[in-house]
Amino acid sequence: MKSAVITFPGSNCDRDMDVALKKFGFKNKMVWHQDIELPKSDLVVLPGGFSYGDYLRCGSMASKSKIMQSVINFANSGGMVMGICNGFQILVETGLVPGVLLRNKYLEFICKNVFVKINNKNNGYFKNISNEVLELHIAHNEGNYFCTNDQLKEIEDNTQVAINYCDPEGKIEEPFNPNGSIKNIAGIFNKEKNVLGMMPHPERMIDHSLSGEDGSHFFKNLINNLK
Amino acid sequence: MKISVIITLKKDVLDPQGKVIHQALDGMGFDDVNEVRQGKYFEIDTKETDPKKAKNKVEEMCKKLLANLVIENYKIIDA
Amino acid sequence: MIVNEKIAIDHGLKKDEYKKICALLKRTPNITELGIFSAMWNEHCSYKSSRLHLKKLPTKGKQVIQGPGENAGVVDIGDNDAIVFKIESHNHPSFIEPYQGAATGVGGIMRDVFTMGARPIANLNSIHFGSTQHKKTKNLLRGVVHGIGGYGNCMGVPTIAGQTSFDSSYNGNILVNAMTLGLVKKDKIFYSKAAGLNKPVIYVGSKTGRDGIHGASMASASFDDKIEEKKPTVQVGDPFTEKLLLEACLELMAGDSIIAIQDMGAAGLTSSSIEMASKGNLGIEINLNNVPCRETKMTPYEIMLSESQERMLIVLENGKEEQAKKIFDKWNLDFAVIGKTTKSKKIELYFDSEKVADIPVNTLVENSPMYDRKWKKAKLPKKNKINKDEINILKIIEILKKILANPNVCSKEWIWQQYDHTVMGDTIQKPGGDSGVVRVHGTNKAVAASVDSSAVYCWAHPLTGGKQVVCESFRNLISVGAKPIAITNCLNFGSPENEENMGEFVECVQGIGEASSYLKFPVVSGNVSFYNQTKDQGIKPTPSIGGVGLIKDYNKMITMDFKEVDNVVLVIGKTEGHIDQSLFARVILDEKNGPPPEINLFNEKNNGETLLKLIDNNLIKSAHDISLGGIITAVSKMCLKGNKGINLKKPKYLISEIEYFFGEDQGRYIVEISKKDQKKVLDTLDKNAVHYDELGTINENMLFLDEKTKVTIDELKGFNTRWLKEYMSN
Q1: How far apart are CA C219 and CA C442, in angstroms?
Q2: What is the ipTM of this complex?
Q3: How close does chain C come to B12, measured CA to CA in Å?
Q4: pLDDT digits (tens, 9 = 90+) for A86-123
């Protein structure tokens, strides 16, 4: 399976994502933001970091970079596009997924492990995964998911919510919401479910020496789904 | 009454955000921009009805909280 | 402007120094030249009060590739890998503008490390604030933490460990010390020594603005009531540009076009160009009209003294300019050829076709002043007579709760959760343990690092305190299973012109030297920060020691959380019950006098090395060094981390329970072992003549001494974790 990770100026999880994708069998290529065309890929990843220093609005300037037109075309033709953390913020700015990401409710950067419940398995990302709940890692300042009530209704009607913050047993309640996101939303799809944006970093949870291994389940399942 | 305040970085202080926004605009084809400086805008609705007093109070707010006088200037705009 | 003595004094120079400048130049300097002298000759750049004493520190060792004198120290960790590291202070700027001060401190130290060709792999920090009751403390703490996070997080370098303390001596002068570790291939290390004639001198990075003009002089001036007036010299950090600069520099370094490279830190273009010329025994000629400027009408004086961040100076091989420029264009950074190396051994500056400065390099460096300041030797304070009847009626659990909730002991999660500590995917021990640990990417090796200081011990007796900090660093590395390699020190003191403060400096340095020499734990880099004082009152002497160690196989790394019920817990090292200067004495007895605990370097080394052997033989399940708050505080933290309890045994000694549990004797660790290994472990300890006590066995969830003295771990956890969060949310 082929993947591509886009490097924007200020991306800093691009290498981590490259390491993770390769570990689970992807042939990964790094793509520079000023390139015009994507290499032939089964999966395109917008990695975490601080593209353009998070200046103006997180993800705003990266969403206008040259490569993004190809990424948008790829997504619109059904290609799998995944945005993690800053990548999610970029996806939101392109309009590929609905909503916005505001500053965390307590106005502080948060770096810690969280649990998320998988809300929808009927898609290329979570199909066949045996876990109901994953322990993943978050590290962000602007992960507070927000959308209008009308948007929320539409998102829910189309089962676009991918994952919600929860407790280890999968209970989705306010105390387990680290950043103030509406309905504890940690990740969402586009309508067609080929584009996924999420705040947690599965690539930081890929071996037992790190914070945990649930990222491994995610990637193993993902490559199997793509085969 | 309503009073507005604009906070900007002092002239000689580096504005990293403005600089990068400028570069991004340039990259998008807006290539005749000389400089971009970013600031903050506040609207303060106060119970005070005397414009002079209100302005003084807002000035105090600027000095004590709204602006970081080490690096920022403020400008009060009448409603 | 015609320079005279008054202007020189306004620049922070002393009368004699000004006379010396005129004599060296055989004329009166112009204003640009005076600015350059004042920047190079101030305490921050010239180390004029400290040089004499720093020379005595041990700086060599089998693994040392580069000691002090370069941008950072370098140590060998095998397989052609090397670690570049240094700690630096940014105290004064952080007090004036905590966010930007701390942020640019972190940015500066990272630049020191990647200037040498190393990719930063970990950040640490040591931050010290005034009393928690002081009105400024909360805002300063919040600003500093946001600043450190703002810069480090954006750079994508994990912040893996740190230290935070509160003491009223920092009320008017906080300390912000930042440390960075970088990884480099041994044969790809870059230095600042220029070589060759007529080589192009290149300026890269951000443009030069009027930021922080005379910042280096500010760092050498003490705070007084007029502090507000010094505000315009604050620099603003731009971590995004630094991230680009890092990637661009590493890309250029992959080739072979760089002869020398130096970051522009304190005193900007002045110190960087002079440093390169001085090390290469060359001259440098610069056309200041070619320096990229952010503001219009900047004068030569301003250009030379600006402390704008995120800039580098490079001496390039001839003919490589185009190739290098392409890289910096790709990363959207300024690139300009501003001058060349010359044989004149002078620094020659031109502006609008006029020569605006002409100074022999040696007058700025070798001929800079060096002082043998007067200093006062500290006496070892007399031991306090402790009324045993009085302390024996105190309730251990109540004291323990107070100590666990003490600002200097409580959990600092509120702080380190705001730092990205997992980016780069190699952090295998996060903040909150004895040391932070990161893997050497793609290998089985890991590097451990910690940062320590013990201002109270140093204040009570500087010589002992100096030794103690080095020993504590040694222990913190060993506790995670790392073999200590070398240290970097950040020496924060009051005024060198005050005999007592100078004495504290001299004796702390002596103590650091003795301990690091005995432990074969050399000093490879560091920085001195004097004039940390408000009015005439100096801070408590606060040398911060950053230690680095190697774990050859990261699967053998040790953490401090208790692992398994029924495992046996030992105290390694002898407990004498030293109460003076302990947290117990200060917090519970309100007693501030007396000597700090003694340091026995033989035991320190022997205990540590024996424990490393046990770890290497997979006999240790968890370990933690004993420091503030003594045995019971250390063991409680192991319980909290592992969600386990312990059945404590009463001491066999004659000393009272209180002294046993709260005494702060040095050279001790708590370790967890399994019952089946007990004989092997005790044999090894006996064979190596290491003293040990059996402290107890692990249980489910209770700290238990007897029916009257017990508490659940959950309750203790509340005391330990609540304080800081509540303090910051009020």
Answers
A1: 41
A2: 0.96
A3: 6
A4: 999 999 999 999 999 999 998 899 999 999 999 999 99
